[in-house]
DUF4219 domain-containing protein
Amino acid sequence: MGKETFPKESKAAGMKLLTRKNYETWKLNIQLLLEENASFGFVDETGLGKEPPATASETEKDKYIQRKIKSRAILINSISEEFRQAAAKHATTKAVWIHLESIFQPSTRSRKMRLLQEFCLIQRKDDESMTSFIDRVDTIGKDVEKLAMTWENMRTYILIARCGKGYENLRQIIDQWSDTDFNWTKVSQALMSEENHRRFASGTSTESKESTDSKAYTTGQWNKSQRGKSSGSRGGKSSTNLQRSSSGQETRQEKYSYLFQLPRTRAFCKRLSKPAEIQK
């Protein structure tokens, strides 16, 4: 972090950047720094961090915006490069603060999940010295050990973290569960219920389409215009192929031509090596 980021009189300007190892110390130092700059209220949006009312003067509104931008900049600039880009995606000081807590706060479930995954998937980089790799494994391993997780906890965290794409909403819901409810049995049941719900929804959608086609057939909703489209799409035949008989009644071909638009009928006729057509 460059010295120009903070006022020269700030005693915290030389503070160490936030890393995986110094969260508690960093948290205290950054709080002091924000308070020194009258910006800590933006962390919880209280005091000077509260948005001025609509009746406030333009000068007051401008000062609020400047303090708001400054507080976020101070916070983001106090984070190491490894985590800064992800933090910068959040638009307010409060959002950045919450994001950092979710990653570094020792008691949070998301941090436990992240540490466990990181430990299980850790791998030596191509250009990394063995000494550095051993140090990384040792550091993360000790962090995981401090979590004091049981074997069931570890299985449950891996289960919900690696269940695949498409389960983000369920994962967020489960993340709000109490520690009592967050166990292997209940998480497994929630995942199975979600999968069954998706299968049922998919099956219902298919059945609904088939039911609609069947209803259209039984109620005669396949009108002449649809039948005309049917005849025109088969080999470029003109509508003259479906003229009425001399008695004024519909020919059998015209009457039942819509049946051949059903995928099942076409497939059946193809298997019999017969044209999907009924003779007059």
Summary: Confidence is low (pLDDT under 50) at residues 1-12, 234-245, 274-280. The chain has 13 helices and no strands.
